[in-house]
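Summary of Year 1 activities. Much of the first year was spent building the evaluation harness for sequence design. The harness presents a backbone, in tokenized form, and records the residue chosen at every position. We chose the following record to illustrate the format because it has been used consistently in internal testing since the harness was completed.
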């Protein structure tokens, strides 16, 4: 067997062959099935982009309508799932609630028929349809309210905001939210997608695949950074505090949340679009002083870390967009998951099409031939 050099974090090691998305980290380019993310953000919808990623081609009008209708029809969650969520502690993190709820779906659809296209389609529709409902339901239930039923006359993004806030969203906010979902839907072999593919490679059910990916996304080095960014901006408090704050972090070699990326060595193209979206929202709903702190931070970090390729990533400006929509900070990462589930499912399908179980190796650096010492002699 060929022995490869050990690379911590598997940096630079291909883990799959994939035609789903592509990142050029030097040029700051992201493509979904060959189409630039900026173009999709401008012209497509989240469900159309999800269709493109999962089925490989842009849908025809009829295909898109069929897909949207199927999702609309499956938005409601089972009473037993809702009752289970009611028992979750209100103080628990919504990402944990989402992970448990996504896994629980597998209890209801336990038949595993991975070679059957109908089973695959059902699972895709069910997960895309119910994950937003589960996120909104937990949010209302932890406040002591009953969940709001989905509204069939609202599209994917508007319906989620409606279920979350118990009122119909402003059309601009709903449109911008849909664009945010497009920006977060897929990103090559990131940690949560890798986790999804490893889980998928054991031929388990898609609910377990998504549950393991949700668990991976939540960490602060990955999707969980969007929540930490807002907490950091709040802690900084004023534009004048930015420079000393950044200097202090760098002095103790701490990571600045929302900056840096394994692949991008320039500003993440999604961060640029999100920044523009934040400005559009501010123009209509009023400015946010934390945006000025963020912009100053981008300037100071560029100056302090010049030449290191550390720029804002997708998690830096997204929270400012969600904040302006009145979304609580600890829902930012679940919202990332609502979008990313489509990317995970695209990778699940691709993994199944040419599956081999993931089973890397390790470099053992422990002891050998150790004698067992009975407990009373230790
Ligand atoms: C959706 C997403 O997952 S996007 C990423 C969200 N995560 C964050 O924003 C958390 C902050 N960022 C980070 O922790 C990292 O940049 C990661 C996890 C995104 C990428 O990590 P890696 O590719 O392993 O980079 P690594 O941690 O090895 O950093 C390389 C160098 O850049 C520096 N660096 C990387 N990110 C940062 C940062 N955010 N702040 C300060 N320095 C940084 C490191 O200190 C290191 O410097 P050194 O070579 O002098 O030791
Ligand atoms: O690609 C990565 O490592 C992280 C990322 O930006 C994403 O998952 O969107």
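For this record, the design step produced the sequence shown next.
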């Amino acid at each position: 067997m060929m022995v490869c050099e050990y690379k911590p974090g598997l940096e630079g090691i291909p883990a799959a062959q994939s035609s789903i998305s592509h990142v050029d980290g030097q040029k700051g380019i992201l493509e979904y099935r060959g189409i630039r993310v900026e173009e999709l953000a401008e012209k497509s919808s989240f469900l159309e982009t999800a269709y493109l990623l999962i089925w490989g081609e842009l849908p025809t009008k009829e295909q898109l309508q069929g897909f949207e209708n199927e999702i609309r029809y499956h938005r409601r969650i089972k009473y037993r799932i809702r009752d289970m969520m009611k028992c979750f502690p209100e103080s628990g993190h919504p990402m944990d609630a989402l992970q448990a709820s996504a896994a629980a779906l597998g209890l209801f659809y336990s038949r595993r028929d991975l070679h059957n296209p109908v089973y695959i389609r059902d699972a895709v529709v069910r997960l895309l349809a119910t994950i937003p409902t589960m996120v909104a339901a937990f949010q209302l239930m932890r406040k002591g309210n009953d969940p709001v039923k989905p509204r069939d006359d609202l599209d994917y993004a508007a319906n989620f905001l409606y279920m979350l806030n118990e009122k119909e969203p402003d059309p601009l906010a709903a449109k911008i939210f849909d664009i945010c979902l497009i920006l977060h839907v897929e990103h090559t072999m990131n940690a949560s997608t890798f986790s999804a593919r490893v889980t998928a490679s054991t031929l388990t059910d898609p609910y377990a695949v998504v549950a393991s990916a949700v668990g991976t996304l939540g960490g602060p080095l990955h999707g969980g950074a969007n929540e930490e960014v807002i907490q950091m901006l709040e802690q900084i408090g004023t534009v004048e505090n930015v420079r000393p704050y950044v200097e202090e972090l760098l002095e103790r070699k701490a990571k600045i949340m929302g900056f840096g990326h394994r692949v991008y060595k320039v500003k993440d193209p999604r961060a640029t679009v999100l920044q523009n979206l934040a400005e559009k929202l501010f123009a209509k709903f009023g400015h946010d002083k934390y945006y000025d702190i963020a912009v100053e931070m981008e300037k100071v970090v560029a100056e302090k870390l010049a030449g290191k390729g550390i720029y804002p990533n997708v998690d830096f400006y997204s929270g400012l967009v969600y904040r302006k929509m009145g979304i609580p900070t600890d829902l930012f990462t679940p919202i990332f998951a609502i979008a990313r589930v489509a990317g995970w499912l695209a990778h699940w399908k691709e993994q199944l099409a040419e599956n081999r179980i993931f089973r890397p190796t390790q470099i053992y650096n422990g002891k050998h031939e150790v004698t067992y010492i009975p407990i009373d002699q230790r």
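The longest strand covers residues 21-24. Quantitative recovery figures across the full test set are reported in Table 2.
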